[in-house]
Amino acid sequence: MIDLEEQFNFTNKLKHPTNDRKAVYRFYDASQAEYFTELLVDADIEFEAQIDDDDEKKPTYFGVAKAKETKADKLNYMALGKGRDK
Questions:
Q1: What average pLDDT does the structure give for the chain?
Q2: Beta strand pairing call for 47-51 and 60-65
Q3: For residue 62, how many other CB atoms are within 10 A of its CB?
Q4: In sequence order, what are the beta bridge partners of 14?
Q5: Cβ distance 25 to 65 under 8 Å?
Q6: CA–CA gap between residue 56 and residue 46 (Å, rounded)
Q7: Residue 46: which residues within 8 A CB-CB, separation 6 or more?
């Protein structure tokens, strides 16, 4: 069951379901996920990535250490904004 905080979360950032020392970023757009991967690698931020094949939209989830969350947030916004009109 989704907790109350996640019901009102309008971002792509989620709580990790089992590890409170990680933040999770969810991307439904494969090109944004690929760009986020590039940004994380360039910034030397370790992460875990997983595609949810059971979901029809095939989202990609990234797990990032909370210690790197502030930097990862900035990279997340860059990935989400890539290709958008100003």
A1: 89
A2: antiparallel
A3: 25
A4: 24
A5: no
A6: 27
A7: 64, 65, 68
- Comparison of pLDDT for 83 and 66, the residue scoring more: 66
Query: First vs last Cα of the chain: how many Å apart?
Result: 37
- CA–CA dist 85, 56 (Å, integer): 27
Q: What is the pLDDT of residues 16-32, one digit of tens each?
A: 889 999 999 999 999 99
Amino acid at 81: G
Alpha-helical segments (H) within 1-86: 4-7, 30-42, 69-81
Q: Is the dihedral of CA 27, 39, 5, 65 positive or negative?
A: positive
Could you tell me if 77 and 13 are in contact, meaning their C-beta atoms sit under 8 angstroms apart? no
Q: Catalogue the E-assigned strands of the chain.
A: 13-15, 22-27, 47-51, 60-65
